[in-house]
């Protein structure tokens, strides 16, 4: 089994599409109510769905990049605002946090070997 995609709710499709393209994702479906992106590496994709009703999304979406510090610096130079700069967390992942224009929490991170094989992995 492989995870195909995650769909995020958004309140403004144009702002959301611009935001995710700025992060480096490739737009592959573009409609007024739905957009889908291909991730720069691997086979994963994710999508956006326009919501007309108020919503609160409690999910956090993680995007991994080996050179996290340089990626965050480049995004910051393009005007993106982070609520947390790259920080090594107690669970051995280095994470930066920002929010998309609709308030969805996004974590950019690097975990290396600890992503799938943390010291506390269940056997």
Write structural notes for this entry.
This protein is of the alpha/beta class. It has one domain (7-115): 2,3-Dihydroxybiphenyl 1,2-Dioxygenase, domain 1 (Roll), CATH 3.10.180. 17% of the residues lie in helices and 34% in strands. It is built from two helices and eight strands; from the N terminus they run E-H-E-E-E-E-H-E-E-E. The strands form two sheets. The protein has a four-stranded mixed sheet, with helices on one face. Strand 7 and strand 8 form a beta hairpin. The longest helix has 11 residues, at 13-23. The two termini are 20 Å apart. The relative contact order is 0.20. The mean pLDDT is 95.
Q: Layout of helices and strands, plus pairs?
A:
Layout: E1 7-10, H1 13-23, E2 26-30, E3 34-38, E4 45-50, E5 60-64, H2 68-77, E6 84-88, E7 94-99, E8 105-110
Parallel strand pairs: 1-4, 5-8
Antiparallel strand pairs: 2-3, 3-4, 6-7, 7-8
Strand order of the largest sheet: 1-4-3-2
- Tell me, what's the shape? globular
Distance between the termini: 20 Å
Number of E-type strands: 8
Question: What's the story with the biggest beta sheet?
Answer: 4 strands, mixed
Kindly provide the name of the CATH class: Alpha Beta
Q: Considering the protein shown, what is the CATH homologous superfamily? A: 2,3-Dihydroxybiphenyl 1,2-Dioxygenase, domain 1
Order of helices and strands: EHEEEEHEEE
Q: Whole-number average pLDDT?
A: 95
Portion in beta strands: 25-35%
Rg (C-alpha, Å): 15 Å
Return the domain count: 1
Low-pLDDT segments? none
**What structural category arises from helix and sheet content?**
alpha/beta
CATH topology (fold) name? 2,3-Dihydroxybiphenyl 1,2-Dioxygenase, domain 1
Overall helicity: 10-25%
Q: Please give the count of helices.
A: 2
In the CATH hierarchy, what is the architecture at level 2? Roll
């Amino acid at each position: 089994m492989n995870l195909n995609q995650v769909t995020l709710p958004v309140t403004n499709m144009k702002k959301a599409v611009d935001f995710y393209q700025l992060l480096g994702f490739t737009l592959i479906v573009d409609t007024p109510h739905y957009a889908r992106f291909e991730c720069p590496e691997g086979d994963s994709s994710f999508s956006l769905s326009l919501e007309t009703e108020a919503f609160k999304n409690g999910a956090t979406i993680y995007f991994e990049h080996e050179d996290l510090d340089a990626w965050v610096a480049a995004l910051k130079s393009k005007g993106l605002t982070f609520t947390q700069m790259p920080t090594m967390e107690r669970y051995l992942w280095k994470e930066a946090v920002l929010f998309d224009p609709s308030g969805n929490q996004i974590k950019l991170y690097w975990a290396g070997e600890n992503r799938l094989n943390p010291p506390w992995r269940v056997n």
